Amino acid sequence: MEDGIYWSAPDLIVEVLSPSENRRRKEEKLADYASIGVPEVWLVSPEAKTVEVLLLKEGKLERTAILAEGELQPSRFADVSISVSAIFPE
Fold this sequence. Notes:
By secondary structure, the protein is of the alpha+beta class. Helices cover 19% and strands 33% of the residues. The protein is built from two helices and six strands; from the N terminus they run βαβββββα. β2 (40-45) and β3 form a beta hairpin. The termini are far apart.
């Protein structure tokens, strides 16, 4: 608790990558997310039409999948399922 407010990391971050996003900036953001304990991050690439799924393991966000199709199921939200095709409609 700080200043009477409870602070905690979000359970999931979904970030849409811009065409100008570079590798260094992406790695900096992921390190920041890991440092505050974000357990799961989805990086959505409109250009590639993919979703990269990263999970926090031993203090580092590690890629577990890159999906261009199929279902996304957040680890902390058991009843949620999102079709990758719904993110990138034709």
